[in-house]
Write a structure and sequence with these properties.
By secondary structure, the chain is mainly alpha-helical. It folds into 3 domains: about 10-205, MFS general substrate transporter like domains (Growth Hormone, Chain: A, Up-down Bundle), CATH 1.20.1250.20; about 215-255; about 265-465, Growth Hormone, Chain: A (Up-down Bundle), CATH 1.20.1250.20. The chain has helices at about 5-15, 20-45, 45-60, 60-90, 90-110, 120-150, 155-180, 185-190, 195-205, 210-215, 220-230, 235-255, 275-295, 300-305, 310-335, 340-360, 365-380, 390, 400-425, 430-450, 460-465.
Length: about 475
C-alpha cells in the first residue's frame, strides 16, 4: 500500500470517530425515533378527517367504524410487550428496522383496500398491524435512545417523543382536512403515512446495535467498539463501563450460586429485583392516561354538561394546554428532575377533578379553568411515561418492561374512553369526575411511594439502586 493510500485510510478512520461524526449520529438517532413517534400520532389522527367519506363509501355502521378506530389500540396492546420481548432477545438494531418495515407495509396496504363486504375486515386487520408497529416504537425506540443518550440530556430527548406524537396527530388532522376538501379519495388520504414510513425506513438502515444490549449478551468488546465509534459524551462512556462491571458482578454471583442469568420474560418483571420498576411504571402510566383520554375524547360533552359549550374550549383548548404541559416538562426535566415533575402534579390533578366532581354549583368559567389546568398539569407528568420506563428497568429487561407498561396503559386508555359515556348516563357527571379523581389519586400515592429521582444518573446506577 502506498503512503498516500495509508494516509487516506487513516484520515477516513479519524473522521469516522470524530466528535462531529458522533454528533451527527446522535442527531440522526434522535430524528428517526422522533419521526417514528410523529408517525404514530399521524396514523391515529388521519382517520378523523375522512371518517365521513369512509362511512359513505363503504356504508359503514357505527360498530364497523368503531372497530376500525379501535384496531390500532388493540394492536398497541399486543405489539408493545411482543416487540419488547423480541428487542430484548434479538437486539434493538434489527427490531428497530423490522418495526418500521411493518409500518411501511401496512401503510402501503391501505392504498389497495377494496370496496364491498370485505373492506371493513381489511381495514381492521391493516389498522391492527399498524397498532402493533406503534406499540413496537415504544418498546424498541425508547430503550435504544436511552442507551445512547448522555445522562444530562436523556430526559429531554425521551420527552421530545411525546411532543412529536402530539405534532403528528395535529399535522394529520390538518393534512387530512386539506386533502378531504380538495376531493382526494380517502384511501390516498390515509395512505399518506406511507411516504413518511419509507423515509424513516431508509434512515434507519445502518444504525448500530445498542452497547447496553450487547453487554447483556456478554459481547463486551463489541459494546466498547461501538461506544468508541459513536458515543461522544464521557458520562455515557462511563455509563457503558459501569454496565459492563455490573454485568460481570451479576454473572459472578450467578456462577457462585450455580444458576444462570435468564432471558427476558413477563415473569421476570415481577421478580423480587424488578417488581418495583414494573408496578411503578405500569401503574403510573395507567393512572396518568385514564382520566385524560376520557375527558379529552368527550371534551365537548363534558364541558356542555357543566354549562360551558364545547367548540374552541373543548376541541382546541384542552389539546393546546396539554401540548404546553409537555413542552414545559421537556424544558425542565433535566434541570429540576423527574420526581418533582411527577408527584406534585398528580396530587394537584386529583384535587382539581375532586373539586369539579363535588362542587355542583361552581361557575361555568371556573369549571373551564379547572379543566384547562388539569390538561396542562396532567400532560406535564404524563411526559414522564416516556422517560421512566426507559430508565428504571435493567438492560436485559428494558424492552419488555417498557412494552408491558405501555400495554397496561392502553387498558386505562380504553377504560377511560369507553366507560365515561356509560358513567355519565348512569351515575352522573359529578360522580364520574370523582371516580376520575380517585384514579389520579391512586397514581399520586403510587408515585409518592415508588418514583425515583434519576436526573443525571447512569442507567447502570438507576437499575442497580431501583432493584434493591
Amino acid at each position: 500500500m502506498t503512503i498516500q493510500g495509508a494516509s487516506t485510510i487513516d484520515q477516513t478512520r479519524a473522521e469516522a470517530t470524530s466528535s462531529a461524526f458522533k454528533r451527527r449520529f446522535m442527531i440522526r438517532l434522535v430524528a428517526v425515533f422522533i419521526g417514528g413517534m410523529f408517525l404514530d400520532g399521524y396514523i391515529l389522527g388521519i382517520i378523523g378527517p375522512v371518517a365521513g367519506l369512509m362511512r359513505t363509501d363503504l356504508q359503514l355502521d357505527a360498530l364497523s367504524l368503531g372497530l376500525i378506530a379501535a384496531g390500532p389500540l388493540v394492536g398497541i396492546f399486543v405489539g408493545s410487550p411482543l416487540a419488547g420481548w423480541a428487542t430484548d432477545k434479538f437486539g434493538r438494531k434489527p427490531m428497530f428496522l423490522v418495526d418500521m418495515g411493518l409500518f411501511l407495509a401496512a401503510s402501503a396496504a391501505q392504498f389497495f383496500i377494496t370496496s364491498g363486504d370485505g373492506a371493513v375486515v381489511q381495514l381492521v386487520i391493516i389498522r391492527f398491524f399498524m397498532g402493533v408497529a406503534i406499540g413496537g416504537e415504544y418498546s424498541i425506540g425508547g430503550p435504544l435512545l436511552s442507551e445512547f443518550s448522555p445522562p444530562k440530556l436523556r430526559g429531554r430527548l425521551l420527552g421530545l417523543t411525546l411532543i412529536a406524537w402530539y405534532v403528528g396527530f395535529m399535522v394529520a388532522f390538518i393534512v387530512g382536512t386539506l386533502l378531504h376538501d380538495a376531493g382526494t379519495p380517502w384511501r390516498l388520504v390515509i395512505g399518506t403515512s406511507t411516504i413518511l414510513a419509507l423515509v424513516l425506513f431508509i434512515a434507519r438502515l445502518g444504525l448500530p446495535e445498542s452497547p447496553s444490549w450487547l453487554i447483556t449478551k456478554g459481547r463486551r468488546e463489541e459494546a466498547l467498539a461501538i461506544a468508541h465509534k459513536y458515543v461522544e459524551s464521557p458520562e455515557m462512556q462511563n455509563s457503558i463501563t459501569e454496565e459492563i462491571d455490573l454485568r460481570m458482578i451479576q454473572e459472578a454471583q450467578a456462577a457462585k450460586n450455580r444458576t444462570t442469568i435468564k432471558g427476558a420474560s413477563i415473569g421476570m418483571l415481577f421478580s423480587k429485583e424488578n417488581w418495583r420498576a414494573t408496578v411503578f411504571t405500569s401503574g403510573f402510566w395507567f393512572c396518568a392516561v385514564t382520566p385524560y383520554f376520557a375527558i379529552a375524547t368527550f371534551a365537548d360533552d363534558v364541558l356542555t354538561q357543566f354549562g360551558f359549550g364545547g367548540g374552541w374550549a373543548g376541541g382546541v383548548g384542552l389539546s393546546a394546554l396539554a401540548a404546553a404541559g409537555v413542552v414545559t416538562s421537556v424544558l425542565l426535566i433535566d434541570r429540576l428532575g423527574r420526581r418533582i415533575l411527577t408527584v406534585p402534579g398528580q396530587w394537584l390533578c386529583a384535587g382539581i377533578l375532586l373539586v369539579i366532581g363535588v362542587w355542583a354549583d361552581a361557575p361555568a368559567i371556573l369549571i373551564l379553568v379547572l379543566f384547562l389546568a388539569f390538561s396542562f398539569f396532567n400532560a406535564g407528568y404524563t411526559t414522564m411515561t416516556q422517560v421512566y420506563p426507559a430508565e428504571v428497568f435493567p438492560g436485559h429487561l428494558r424492552g419488555i418492561g417498557m412494552g408491558f407498561a405501555a400495554a397496561f396503559s392502553r387498558i386505562g386508555a380504553a377504560l377511560g374512553t369507553f366507560a365515561l359515556p356509560w358513567a355519565i348516563s348512569n351515575i352522573g357527571m359529578g360522580a364520574s369526575m370523582v371516580v376520575a379523581a380517585a384514579v389520579a389519586l391512586l397514581g399520586a400515592v403510587l408515585s409518592q411511594w415508588l418514583a425515583p429521582e434519576t436526573k443525571g444518573r447512569t442507567l447502570a446506577e438507576i437499575s442497580s439502586d431501583f432493584s434493591h
